[in-house]
Amino acid sequence: MSGASPTLRSVTDSAGAATSPAATGPGEVAPRRRPALSPSRAGDFKQCPLLYRFRAIDRLPELPSRAQIRGTLVHTVLERLYDLPAAQRAPEAARGLVRPVWAELCAELPELVEQLFEGPDDPELPRWLESADALLEVYFRMEDPRRLEPAARELLVETELASGLLLRGYVDRLDVAATGQVRVVDYKTGAAPREVAEVKALFQMKFYALALLQLRGVVPTQLRLLYLADGESLTYEPDEAELRRFERTLEAIWRAIREAGESGDFRPNRGRMCEWCSHKALCPAWGGTPPAYPGWPAEEDVATAALEHLAQ
Ligand code: SF4
Prior knowledge:
By secondary structure, the chain is α+β, with helices and mostly antiparallel strands. The chain has helices spanning 6-14, 19-23, 39-47, 49-57, 66-81, 91-108, 111-116, 124-142, 196-216, 240-263, 303-311; strands spanning 32-33, 152-160, 166-176, 182-188, 222-227, 232-236, 300-301.
């Protein structure tokens, strides 16, 4: 793998800078596609339709948190780790990638250090980088990367369902056994799964399983979430009937999104998650006024898919 990975591009999007320059070369125009559903955006709509609007339609900038950027950093390090020959995939090799990947992020987004820290000399910065090392240490307790040869990393999955609904998302890692059995692996760098988080994670994994079923004609044997904060994992074995039911669920969510998109009626759903919402000041549930509804987008640039990664 090389150059700016989807994860690095996603930071640019979420930090609010223009999407296209980061996703393409200078002067190039990002390719554009018709709007698609991703696990994150479906989750946004289920949580709060107005949050969906702010993120997917208004594309309001959001400042990433330190935890999100650490997630991006660790995902990128794990992706690059598998570029090395198997025998070299040791913990020290992973730790050795952390600072160079951070330097790349900073080079792409010089404002990141100023936004998240009090400049490059902030005494919290080395401690924060060490917290990324700690997540990688946990990873090595969960898996031995010397024994794995992923079929794909940071895989963009995009497929159209029979109904015409376009699904789009990124799979952290895809393992394919000699028998043809497929395993989807997702790294989580936040807290361990609990209640709502677990439901959200399973939704995301079913989404990928359905997309892969569409694309490859096989039901993934296993969906595996690795929680690097505490070394817990969640394994799920889907079956086709369940994934077909899930397909109907996604279509129902998309219909609801399109109806709201036509009318512009995206209702706020005030709740516990508002505490983490970047758009509270514009939210009528908190006394704010949203910007004028810009209308349903005819198309979106493909870098939007990369943006989803941060929110997962
Ligand atoms: S503050 Fe709460 S209700 Fe308002 S948009 Fe954000 S998540 Fe939705």
